[in-house]
Write a structure and sequence with these properties.
Distance between the termini: 85 Å
Number of helices: 8
Strand order of the largest sheet: 1-3-5-7-9-11-13
Largest sheet: 7 strands, parallel
Low-confidence stretches: 137-181
Strand content: 15-25%
Oligomer: single chain
Helix content: 40-55%
Mean pLDDT: 77
Radius of gyration: 29 Å
Number of strands: 14
Shape: globular
C-alpha cells in the first residue's frame, strides 16, 4: 500500500514538473523571438549604414571631381583678379566638402583629396603672384632700400605661398607623413606629453594615431579631430568646429567639445563631452560620459570662432547602433558617476 502511495506521489510530482516546463516554453520562445528580431534589426541598421556610406562616397567622388575640374579651368583662364577670386571661392568650397566627408572616406581617398586641394592651392598662389602688377623702374639706391626693407619684413628665400605654413611647421619625428599641410597631429609615440597651441591648429584637421600612455593637450579650435589606435592616453581638446571620431581606442580619458561625436570599436574610455548633436557608439563597450569641464585661457574666444552653441550640450544623449531595444538601456555605455568626475587635467 505504501509503495502504491509513493508511486502516485511520484506521478503527481512528474506531472507538475512537466506542466511547469510547458509553461516556460512560450516565455523562452518569446525571448528567443525577441532576440532574433533585435539581431535582424541590428543587421538591417548596419547594412543601411554601409549603404549610406557607400552612397556618400559616390556623391563625394562625383562632386569633388566636378568642382576640382571647375577650379582648374578657372585657374587656367584667370586673366583678372575677379576670375582668380572666383577660383579661390570654389577652392574653399572644395576644401569644405573634403572636411565634411572625412569620417566616411577611406584613408587613401582622403589623402588623394588632400593632395589634390594642396596642388590647387599652390597653383592659385602662383597665379596670384603672376597677376600682381610689376614694380616700376627705380634708381639703384631706392632698389637697395626696398631690398633691405624686404629682408626685414620676410625671411629671404621663402615665397609668400608658404608664409602661413611656416608659422606652424609639422614636427617630422612626432607627426610623420600626415598627408598635407592642413593636417596636423602626432603618431607612433609613447609616454610623452604633447601639445599644440591655437596658432598651430586653428581650423586644421587633427590626426592622432598609435599613441600609448601619452597626454595630449590641444589648445585652440581645430576643424576636425580623429583619434585612432590609441591606448591609455589622456586627450584634452578645445572646441572642434565639426566632428570628432574615435576608433580602436582603449583605456583613455578625453575632454572634447564638438558638433558631432562618433565612436567605433573602442572600450573602457571616459569622455567629458560637449556636443550639439548626439554621440554615436558602435561596436563599443565600457564607454562612460560626463559633461565637458576642461578650461584654459582664451577658451571663450575659441568657442566663439568654432561656431558651437555653448548653451546646448547633449552629452548624455547617446545612440548605440548595436542596441536597438528602446525599453532597456544599452550595456555598452553609461553615465560616469559624479564622484568619479574629479579629474586632474594638469
Amino acid at each position: 500500500m505504501e509503495s502504491v502511495s509513493c508511486s502516485a506521489a511520484a506521478v503527481r510530482t512528474g506531472d507538475m514538473e512537466s506542466q511547469r516546463d510547458l509553461s516556460l516554453v512560450p516565455e523562452r520562445l518569446q525571448r528567443r523571438e525577441q532576440e532574433r528580431q533585435l539581431e535582424v534589426e541590428r543587421r538591417k541598421q548596419k547594412r543601411q549604414n554601409q549603404e549610406a556610406e557607400k552612397e556618400n562616397s559616390h556623391f563625394f567622388a562625383a562632386t569633388f571631381a566636378r568642382e576640382r575640374a571647375a577650379v582648374e579651368e578657372l585657374l587656367e583662364r584667370a586673366e583678372s583678379v575677379e576670375r582668380l577670386e572666383e577660383a579661390a571661392s570654389r577652392l574653399q568650397g572644395l576644401q569644405k566638402l573634403l572636411n565634411d566627408s572625412v569620417f566616411f572616406l577611406a584613408a587613401y581617398d582622403l589623402r588623394q583629396g588632400q593632395q589634390a586641394v594642396a596642388r590647387l592651392q599652390a597653383a592659385l598662389d602662383e597665379r596670384r603672384r603672376e597677376l600682381q602688377p610689376k614694380k616700376r623702374f627705380a634708381f639703384k639706391t631706392r632698389r637697395k632700400d626696398a631690398a633691405s626693407s624686404t629682408k626685414v619684413d620676410a625671411a629671404p628665400g621663402i615665397p609668400p605661398a608658404v608664409e602661413s605654413i611656416r608659422d606652424s611647421p609639422l614636427p617630422k619625428k612626432a607627426e610623420g607623413d600626415l598627408g598635407s599641410s592642413w593636417v596636423c597631429g602626432f603618431s607612433n609615440l609613447e609616454s610623452q606629453v604633447l601639445e599644440k597651441r591655437a596658432s598651430e591648429l586653428h581650423q586644421r584637421d587633427v590626426l592622432l594615431t598609435e599613441l600609448s600612455n601619452c597626454t595630449v593637450k590641444l589648445y585652440g579650435n581645430p576643424n576636425t579631430l580623429r583619434l585612432t589606435r590609441t591606448h591609455s592616453c589622456k586627450l584634452l581638446c578645445g572646441p572642434v568646429s565639426t566632428s570628432v571620431f574615435l576608433e580602436d581606442c582603449s583605456d583613455c580619458v578625453l575632454a572634447v567639445a564638438c558638433q558631432q561625436l562618433r565612436i567605433h570599436s573602442t572600450k573602457d574610455t571616459r569622455i567629458f563631452l560637449q556636443v550639439t548633436s548626439r554621440a554615436i557608439v558602435e561596436d563599443c563597450s565600457g564607454i562612460q560620459f560626463a559633461p565637458y569641464t576642461w578650461s584654459y585661457p582664451e577658451i571663450d574666444k575659441d568657442f566663439e570662432s568654432s561656431g558651437l552653441d555653448r548653451s546646448k550640450n547633449n552629452w548624455n544623449d547617446v545612440d548605440d547602433f548595436n542596441w536597438l531595444a528602446r525599453d532597456m538601456a544599452s550595456p555598452n555605455w553609461s553615465i560616469l558617476p559624479e564622484e568619479e568626475r574629479n579629474i586632474q587635467w594638469d
